[in-house]
């Protein structure tokens, strides 16, 4: 009997030690220990031990199972967290890889220049960056869950609170900035309204009834008022829309671009006529000048075109001279600053750049270029005028036409001479500058083209400066030289290029 009691105590000690050393152990380990303990005992002892084992198991199940279940839950949570983080990192790597591919495509779109491919690649890069932002927020939200059951509720709330503040802080800062801008705009609108009232009083609103309905400015004023109503502004350019309607501000339309082309055409003709009359007064050899211009437009190799007879007919020298002027002043038109600097604002911030261009167009349209350059002689428009004048009027030409180089010296010094000739040039320069601003405010910007020498005449893309009976170019005529470029707009409409056509046999 004493031996049985000793064996029973030994059994209790073994079971207790096994539970302490192996809290997650299965019933199999416990059964093995019991089997090993009783391998040499008789059946009666074994049955008695089994009863004790059953009794012990029931007690241990009541005492140990909560801890075992809690730890099992913790292990399952850790496994779930690991799988979640693995999936998250996999998505991060896939997104980064896609963004790299999109960025490479964006770089390839620069050379050769492909605006459509560039636009799509830029959208792809932005989409992948947004995905990364979403993954970052997912990671931040999951930080509060790190630690499983071991993390206290207070710690979770602290981590979640920090993440929430980090997310909300940028929006709060942006909101404060917008509130400040709204207050500034409201003050500006109030100031402009006061100016409008003053201007209305000075113009004498009651005197309009005494004006003749046939006054030459009456119809133009109507047009301005109508256009202003469409744009939400008055005749002084004051925005009468409330601040919250700024999102629907006027935008450039292809029709505005086409009307601006007419101003360029008129300015080009006027300046060319003045230049030609000055050349005749200075006894220039007009025929030799025309041949020189023709030679500069020839793209074929071999003997220069100057050794051949001129293709320009009588009284058509003005077209050759206009071709020379337009070629010089439109050079660099496809760049946002006519290559006066290396600016890339149209690529880095396209939406903002388009808005700024259209704003400059509206502000500058009614300005006198002489008065503007008198105040800001070295502004971007002033630099454009200086560069183009020096390109069109070379030193020998100016000295021959005016007897000195005084205008050139003033331009080189950063000034703008107040002469009739330079003033006529500024009219053309302003028209081209406004056209350039409009082109870069359209989305997509228009593409310009010109009819090259010897090209077949296409009436849907070209317009002949020489008039033909019936208004149609006779068969067998080709382009002798381009006069002014044409443009293809984003809506599919075409502004025809002006060309000088000649019979194909004369080339």
Automatic annotation (TrEMBL):
InterPro entries: DUF641_pln, GIL1-like, GIL1_IRKI_C. Residues 449-500 form the GIL1/IRKI C-terminal domain. Residues 30-64, 200-226 are annotated as: Disordered. Signal peptide: none annotated. Residues 210-224 have a biased composition (Basic residues). It comes from the Eukaryota. Residues 81-203 form the DUF641 domain. Residues 30-55 have a biased composition (Basic and acidic residues). GO terms for biological process: negative gravitropism; response to red or far red light. This is Uncharacterized protein. It comes from Cynara cardunculus var. scolymus (Globe artichoke).
